Amino acid sequence: MSEGRATRVATGAARIGLGVVAAAGAVGLAVGARGPIGDGLGALVGWRGLVVAAALVVGAGAAWRGWPIGRALAWPPRRWFIAGAMIVALASGVWAHRVIAKGVPDVPDELGYLHTARTFAQGHLTAPSPPAQEFYYVSWGLHDHDRWYAVFPPGYGATLAIGVAVGAPGWINPLLGAALVLVLFLLAEHLLGRDHLGARIAIVLYLASWFRLMNAASFMAHPLAALLGALAVLGLLRGVVWPGEHRARWAGVGGAALGALVATRQLDAVIVAFALAPAIVLALVRAPRAAARRFALAVACGLPLVAGYLAYNRALTGAAMVTPQERFMAQKERRADCFRLGFGPGVGECPITQGTHFGKDGFAPKHAVANSRRRLDAWVRYAWGWTPLVLLPLLGLIAVAIRGGAAARRLALPAALFVGTVGGYGLFFYHGVIYGPRFYYLAWPLAVLASAAAIRELGLAVARLGRRGPLVAGGLAAALPALLVVGLHAAWPAVKQHAGRRPRTGDGKLVKALADPALRDALVFVDSMTLPATVTDDPVHPARNRPLVVKSLGDAADAGFARLFPDRRPLRMLGARFVPLAVAPDAPMRHEGGALYPLDDFRGGFGDRGTSPGLGRVELSAGAALRFALDGPARFSVPIWVIAVDAGPMTVALAVVRHPGSPAIDVTIDGVAIATGLVTAAPGWAVERIELPAELTPGRHRLAIAAPTGRRGEVFALDHVELVPRR
Fold it and tell me: Could you report the per-residue pLDDT of 22-42, keeping only the tens digit for each?
């Protein structure tokens, strides 16, 4: 195919694609967004409407006097404008982190990312599991054969580690958002024209968004993914597709950015590659040798980062193609492959970790539609400074589709990225709506470019009005920032409700209470899984945390754990108060069964946390037991810890839930048998203490329980393990 024919085909396809996307978007907004758009229009009733009307009048009057307000946007030199916008993005992002997010994490993912960042900042890939590891918890993290790590890819954790190292992790996402200003401006110049005005409009729309501010406030990976995605698009377009200077350099930057995105959010990388593929193919058709050479350079720059990510997987899971998240799900869910893309039986069957189950047929297209509607509703509500401005991207696509030419080909990229994002995440069973439709943050900056294109096209249309054109243009130029400001103000209560609540940390007050210098020598037990993960700044060296905050597992277990830190004052946190905890000097180490879930070593069944209603309503020491459901002959092991002064001859006491369907078991410690053929079945339900002698050295050991004659349907339940020295 000749170059000219290829260009004509690409242009025609782009125009058709833009029209289809715009039509689909219009139908979607008409069906599902009339409420939010109506709310946005309703916000103009009263004083907000008067502000916008006044701006219209002032803008038109200034234009009549020869002072068009629109020129104010073009007045600052290019570098000054970019620098000023970056400062605004940074300052507003830091404000959002402190005011919206209260400076603390709340979403479980954030705690996982912080754990990874804190571990990396100490120079470790994983933290060693501490003694009595069940007291140390982090969301989306696990203790895996004496290693403690979170499940997410390392890209964002490595970036966040920079902030951890300098004591300012909350500044990382605002800084990433500021960097995106520069990348978005450069990309807009090429996609919207070199007159710079379209790029400046795009930056204004980018800054005036609660979607941006909510993500800047967070400890989530989406701002990094958006930056890397935009940089990959810019680099590969300038390096492989478009003519210009420094093409090899830009190709390398684009390839490296896409490789880093693989190590941050893999699905996002696939979506970006999908959106770029047509432009890359067209470039290869037009200039096969030159484009192929630069594309190969991009691949060469991206591959080391992808290889590093695969090496990270191998270091944690033992296999390059097995992610830590897959390892996590295999331990936490009965259906180990529930957390995957697509449709069918088993997809989304993650009741323990996600609270999701879609029936025997699994996740289906109807569920994908429901999830997408929920995400798109949040897109309408939070992505634009004033809700009705959600119409702008569609208007921009329509205008460029009508115009055709290179403009249509270029704006097809944001459209393809949005379609790929909606479609790609349509295959994911979890809705993910917090901090706005966060899965769509990848596509949002480029959607802003389509909005800027619509405004520019409107400006061209107004210019054709003759003498009235300047007055109309002046009024609209003044009205747009007024609409953005009043729209942001009107949405503020909803934003606080959506992203500003921090119930797990008392809106940050509990974290502040734990920062009291008077607690530096304390060991604090809390009835929370979030607080310990929030305030554990050094997971590699737990004793360096002051105070050391851990999950309370009940009086008996807490007392034994406190003996590991004789130099610390044991306290229990009740609300924002701290109550001294009396600890017997010879309190035995107790491992509560329910806290030993998830198991990192098991076969022939699955272990989870069982509560009294599911275990014959027996009284459990900490409210939950380790419940292991057998599929046949089975075995599992758990870590136990021997306090140094207790080592030697010991009694290993197993508190077992006896019931009619419990198997006979063998018990070993570090492979040495201490009991065989123990009968745990009984006519009724009861917790019984089985005492077994053992000789144990200080430190960590592995207690294994096997049921060599186990049968499918049998269930073994362990309330706790207690290690008592024999004096």
Answer: 998 888 888 878 888 988 999
